[in-house]
């Protein structure tokens, strides 16, 4: 595995790499230096000056909103900042003009974030239909077989948190086109792919998207995004509204309920300034490394790492879960090792400074572009030790 310039540049920004083999970005990512510096700068200003710097902070937030729009090929007016992915999905679930007897279709192996908001609609006569998955690989024919004339929304994860399966651009395009032909809207949970893989929501005509920044975008928890096509602005009933939801948010003495004509109407009140500033620094770092709606050297590095990691795990007898096709893979590799207690292996990994997850009876590694062969070797050597002990 040869380290590229992109990998080296990003590794220099990751203090965690000095001590840990951090292979768990599908859970919570460590912060880059520039992100910590941005957040510390905000903390210093807030501590020493209170809100005197608020106008500059607010301007910075709008710059970051523009950068988010550039990342996904949208307009800044279509972006709202959220505290997490769940909030964005709930904006659609709770704001959609449902009628009794309608349904939403999703996959059975979705993360709870993309299930519970829809299941919560049952009391209002809306049914959640789940499509079964085999070996972590979705079947698009099954997806649409599950739809009918009363299906209003298809909600799916761009990248599966459990199998690492990633819908290709062509697959997303096919899903959106067929859904729209049937009068169905498409919601994309993008948290496991956004910030590394290219995505152009305008080109694909995706209706809604939600993601938090604390995984592959290397941001802090509590700072995420919600995207909606501007033409849908009046489709959803605004939720969690406040002083910042209206057309004239700073005219506090004039009460006039005219919602802002931007997705930012969903931000309601005061923003998570420090979190958004940190998120913005992480996002700019990735964009400086070449991540855009059409290409991503960072994604190329991650896919190469995934391929090498799976080959070397296979040599140790690991059984890989998910698609064998590179075009459908991501930064997530889930695997089992026959005759090895995976929970114990994970525990030993954590004690040895090798950070990974244990999900659905499988181990899951999710390396970023800055991880190198030494990080992987630490895991492989520990697996070899446990295999010898199992003999």
Salient structural properties:
391 residues; alpha/beta; Aspartate Aminotransferase, domain 2; four-stranded antiparallel sheet; 12 helices; globular
Name of the top-level CATH class of the largest domain? Alpha Beta
What's the N-to-C terminus distance? 30 Å
For the record, what is the CATH homologous superfamily label of the largest domain? Type I PLP-dependent aspartate aminotransferase-like (Major domain)
Q: Calculate Rg over CA atoms.
A: 22 Å
Strand order of the largest sheet: 2-8-7-6-5-3-4
Detailed description of the structure:
Helix 7 links the parallel strand 5 and strand 6. It is built from twelve helices and 13 strands. The chain has helices at 5-12, 33-49, 54-72, 85-95, 116-119, 140-145, 169-181, 201-204, 273-288, 297-315, 342-351, 373-390; strands at 21-22, 79-82, 103-107, 127-131, 151-157, 185-189, 208-212, 224-228, 319-321, 333-336, 354-355, 357-359, 362-365. The chain folds into two domains: 5-23 and 296-386, Alpha-Beta Complex (Aspartate Aminotransferase, domain 1), CATH 3.90.1150.10; 38-288, Type I PLP-dependent aspartate aminotransferase-like (Major domain) (Aspartate Aminotransferase, domain 2), CATH 3.40.640.10. It is of the alpha/beta class and 391 residues long. The protein has a seven-stranded mixed β-sheet, sandwiched between helices. It is globular and about 75 Å long. The model has no long low-confidence stretch (mean pLDDT 95). The protein starts with a helix and ends with a helix.
């Amino acid at each position: 595995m040869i380290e590229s310039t992109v990998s080296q540049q990003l590794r220099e920004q990751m203090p965690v790499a000095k001590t840990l083999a951090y292979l768990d970005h599908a859970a919570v990512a460590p912060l880059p230096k520039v992100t910590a510096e941005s957040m510390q700068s905000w903390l210093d200003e807030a501590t020493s000056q209170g809100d005197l710097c608020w106008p500059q902070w607010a301007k910075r937030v709008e710059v970051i909103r523009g950068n988010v729009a550039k990342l996904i090929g949208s307009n800044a007016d279509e972006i709202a900042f959220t505290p997490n992915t769940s909030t964005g999905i709930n904006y659609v679930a709770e704001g959609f003009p449902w009628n009794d007897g309608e349904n939403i279709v999703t996959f059975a192996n979705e993360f709870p974030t993309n299930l519970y908001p829809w299941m919560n609609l049952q009391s209002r006569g809306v049914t959640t239909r789940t499509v079964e998955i085999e070996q972590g690989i979705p079947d698009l024919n099954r997806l649409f077989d599950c739809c009918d004339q009363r299906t209003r929304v298809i909600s799916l994860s761009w990248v599966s948190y459990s199998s690492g399966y990633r819908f290709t651009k062509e697959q997303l395009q096919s899903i959106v086109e067929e859904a729209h032909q049937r009068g169905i809207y498409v919601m994309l949970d993008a948290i496991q792919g956004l910030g590394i893989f290219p995505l152009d929501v305008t080109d694909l005509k995706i209706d809604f998207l939600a993601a938090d920044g604390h995984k592959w975008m290397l941001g802090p928890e509590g700072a995420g995004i919600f995207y909606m096509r501007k033409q849908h602005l009046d489709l959803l009933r605004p939720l969690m509204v406040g002083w910042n939801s209206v057309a004239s948010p700073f005219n506090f003495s004039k009460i006039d309920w005219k919602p802002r004509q931007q997705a930012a109407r969903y931000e309601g009140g005061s923003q998570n300034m420090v979190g958004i500033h940190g998120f913005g620094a992480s996002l700019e770092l990735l964009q400086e490394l070449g991540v855009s709606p059409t290409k991503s050297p960072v994604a190329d590095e991650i896919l190469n790492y995934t391929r090498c990691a799976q080959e070397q795990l296979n040599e140790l007898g690991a059984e890989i879960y998910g698609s064998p096709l590179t075009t459908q893979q991501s930064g997530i590799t889930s695997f089992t090792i026959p005759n090895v207690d995976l929970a114990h292996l994970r525990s030993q990994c954590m004690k040895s400074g090798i950070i990974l997850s244990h999900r659905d009876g499988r181990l899951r590694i999710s390396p970023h572009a800055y991880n190198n062969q030494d990080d992987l070797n630490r895991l492989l050597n520990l697996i070899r030790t446990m295999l010898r002990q199992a003999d």
